[in-house]
Amino acid sequence: MPDKPLIAITGASSGIGEAVARAFSRAGHPLLLIARRLDRLEALGLPNALLKKADVRDRAALAAAVGEAEARFGPVDMMFANAGIARLGDIARQAPEEWDEMIDINTKGAMNSVHAVLSGMIGRKHGTLVMMSSIAGRKVYPDHTVYCGTKFFVHAVSESLREYLAPHDVRVIVVSPRHYRYGSAGSCEGRDDARQLQGEQSGDRRRHFRRRRRRSHPRRLSAAAASDRPGNRHHADPTEILTQRSRRRRDGRPERRME
User: Which of 35, 64, 73, 161 has its CA 20 to 30 A from that of 108?
Assistant: First the structure.
């Protein structure tokens, strides 16, 4: 078994999921990487990683992937429920099938990811659930109606899980970034959706959207998640999720709740 614990990441083929996978790999952790695009996972070229093609809507496939990874690397110490999608549009004109896709992936997919590791973490009285939400889980935006609803769901479920799991020493952390582009073409705040929104919005809103899009380019987000420079104001090494916890436990200090 590896010296460091197993990290599981859904939606690991691009964007924040990819950056977090690279950071934990660099820190020496074995990985379970799950995504629908196996070729993108293979292109990462990360060592000591089990790559599984699976859709988070498939509860049995997630459970099977976790079981295979734990047999190889030991128990999952952190599950990053990162997979998600956004289909933005005028709610009166948007196809209901797009609502279904967002609800199934962003809400049921998150719960399926939790379910795959929850019993084991409770039994071991140890583990961390990292739930990918969004600033849209705290504030509503035009043309984000159903997407906001799915992210409010993630926040509510996470708060309930945090209370439920506290006696079992299992932590729940919510990550709520602002706008960024997902890696898959035509999804989330991708180029096609951005152009459509820009065509519908006023000049001021178009300029605001473009500024936010530049600030939130995946390369910048990857640099923020994977940076090794502690002095960098964008520094956010996700491996600190585990190492800080270990130090606080060793020193007998109470853990800080993060969100």
Answer: 73
